[in-house]
Amino acid sequence: LAAGVTLQGSLPFPFGAAVNVNLLKNNTAYRALVIKEYNSLTPENAMKPATLHPQENTYNWDDADYLVDFARQNNKRVHGHTLVWYKSLPSWIKNYQGNTAAWENLLKTHIQTIVTHFKGKVASWDVVNEAFEDDGTLRNSIWVQKLGPDYIARCFQYAHEADPDAQLFYNDFGHEYGATKRTVILNLINNMKSRGIPINGIGMQMHTRYNMTESNWTAAITTAAQTGLKVHISELDVALNPDNNQNLTLTTALAETQAQKYLFIVKAYNAIPKAQQFGITTWNVSDADTWITGNYNRPDWPLPFDSNYNRKPAYQGILDGV
Ligand code: XIL
Fold first, then answer.
1. Residue pair 176/239 in contact by the 8 Å Cβ criterion
2. Does 104 participate in catalysis according to the annotation?
3. What pLDDT was estimated at residue 146?
4. Which of 36, 69, 197, 253 is least surrounded, with the fewest CB atoms within 10 Å of its CB?
5. What is the pLDDT along the chain (322 residues), one digit of tens a residue?
6. What residues make up the domain containing 45?
7. Residue 88: which CATH number?
8. Ordered DSSP codes for 122-166
9. Which of 46, 55, 61 has the alpha carbon at shortest distance from 96?
10. Ligand 1 centre and the CA of 206: distance in Å?
């Protein structure tokens, strides 16, 4: 690889990572790699409801502001994640007592306080995350229970009121699992578009695995692009140990297979219209900081950098996809 080659310098669309603020502050190798390789950053946890809004009248901006300042100093875009989710609920929301109007006001105030705080600094948001189950039914989240299924559209309206310039995304996983889940997501998006709800983009998480049928990735990407909205591959990682084998080790062959899969996904993404390419974001930076190992309690190596922050074959795969 020629000296000076970077992801951000080589790809025709923004390339980002989910960033952990503690590592950014305390790990110089991590920080240097983030500065060098990426031009878009998503906070891994720093902008989630439980982090930002721990008490009804208390907002904790510290880590998120640190990330935003870091991004500004280093010329990087920040994609906000996530205003509303069924997870990362602070206990004051879980335990909140109030009538429908009070819940509606809670939701609106939460969204608008956060979007207003970052207005002019965070130009895009995952407004609602993971509203559907894998079988295509609407997830029975606290928001559905208290406010009914159309809370999703109102979240977008509230965010838009607070910052009319922000690009607003619906984010979910499983578009590549099959037609069932992605069809309900695309129906939701098309329905909101037809009603004039301010939605600009579709985020496909793409927490995927090396042995996924490749045509499923193509189907996910092309059908998302058919909405006409911006398309963000928002949380890409390619797991190598989806069967949770506790004794698996990373072989050269497996790393090369992973490179081919990254290449395939990047190539499929690069084939959608330029104007719709919001970018690709990997979820985390390296195999040392991947959420997969902790979340699924298994060894895995899903990212383009290894545990020492060195480039893996997947890195070259990404470059070869364009
Ligand atoms: C994950 C983080 O990576 C973890 O550190 C945290 O403990 C749980 O959330 N889909 C999403 C992300 O939208 O917000 C999740 O991030 C990963 C799955």
1. no
2. no
3. 98
4. 253
5. 777 999 999 999 999 999 999 999 999 999 999 999 999 999 999 999 999 999 999 999 999 999 999 999 999 999 999 999 999 999 999 999 999 999 999 999 999 999 999 999 999 999 999 999 999 999 999 999 999 999 999 999 999 999 999 999 999 999 999 999 999 999 999 999 999 999 999 999 999 999 999 999 999 999 999 999 999 999 999 999 999 999 999 999 999 999 999 999 999 999 999 999 999 999 999 999 999 999 999 999 999 999 999 999 999 999 999 9
6. 7-298
7. 3.20.20.80
8. --EEEEEE--B-TTSSBP--HHHHHH-TTHHHHHHHHHHHH-TTS
9. 55
10. 13
Among 21, 24, 44, 175, the mutation site with the greatest number of ligand 1 atoms within 8 A of its Cβ is 44
Q: Please choose from 295, 296, 297 the residue to mutate so as to test ligand 1's pocket, defined by most ligand atoms within 8 A of CB.
A: 295
pLDDT tens sequence across 263-281: 999 999 999 999 999 999 9
The answer as to whether 316 is a domain residue is no
Residue ID of nearest Cα to ligand 1 atom 4 = 291
Q: Which of 280, 270, 201, 267 lies closest to 235, judged by CA?
A: 280
Number of domains in the chain: 1
Rounded alpha-carbon distances, angstroms, from residue 80 to 185, 207, 214: 20, 18, 29
Cis status of the peptide bond prior to 82, with omega within 30 of 0? yes
Domain annotation covers residue 1: no
Q: Is residue 303 part of a domain?
A: no
Grouping H, G, I as helix, E, B as strand and the rest as coil, residue 31 is helix
Tokens standing for residue 148: 């009914």
Cβ 76 vs Cβ 41: under 8 Å: yes
Enumerate residues lining ligand 1, CB below 6 A.
Answer: 44-45, 129, 205, 235, 291
Q: Is residue 317 part of a domain?
A: no
Q: For ligand 1, what atom is nearest to the CA of residue 234?
A: 13
HSE (side-chain half, CA atoms, 13 Å) at 165: 7
Residue whose CA is at the smallest distance from ligand 1 atom 13: 129
